[in-house]
From TrEMBL:
It comes from the Eukaryota. PANTHER family: ALPHA-PROTEIN KINASE 2, ALPHA-PROTEIN KINASE 2-RELATED. Coiled coil: none annotated. InterPro entries: a-kinase_dom (IPR004166), Kinase-like_dom_sf (IPR011009). PROSITE patterns: ALPHA_KINASE (PS51158). Keywords: Disulfide bond, Immunoglobulin domain, Kinase, Serine/threonine-protein kinase, Transferase. It comes from Xenoophorus captivus. This is Alpha-protein kinase 2. The gene is ALPK2. The keyword NAD does not apply. Residues 1-111 form the Alpha-type protein kinase domain. One of its GO terms (molecular function) is kinase activity. Pfam families: Alpha_kinase.
Length: 111
């Protein structure tokens, strides 16, 4: 899980460079880091931690395809998440696709 999210963070850095070259692109979604924590005295010795997002929580893309997601197409943040997904897919020649993007619409923070 940590490797997947941190890989997406590396791609958003490259995407940010490309998007900044587009005049008036605006805010770019951010993928927050996730951390693996070792808890040796616990029954479950490993856990993942990520920043708590406070505010209106929105799913911009879902991996199961069972949910209708109007926020994806009807919001700027949702459209930018879709653009990022397409950019990753295109730039990895179809080898990677970022899915299950969700976060705070107002702050453009994504997990």
């Amino acid at each position: 899980e940590c490797q997947v999210q941190n890989t997406a963070r590396e791609y958003i850095k490259a995407y940010t460079s490309a998007a900044k070259s587009v005049e008036a692109f605006g805010d770019i979604p951010e993928i927050i880091p996730i951390y693996l924590v070792h808890r040796p005295s616990n029954n479950i010795p490993y856990a993942t931690l990520e920043e708590e997002l406070i505010g209106d929580f929105v799913k911009y893309s879902v991996k199961d395809g069972k949910e209708i997601n109007v926020m994806r197409r009807d919001s700027e943040a949702g459209q930018k998440c879709c653009a990022f997904q397409h950019w990753v897919y295109h730039n990895t020649e179809g080898n990677l696709l970022v899915t299950d993007m969700q976060g705070q619409q107002s702050l453009q923070r994504t997990v």
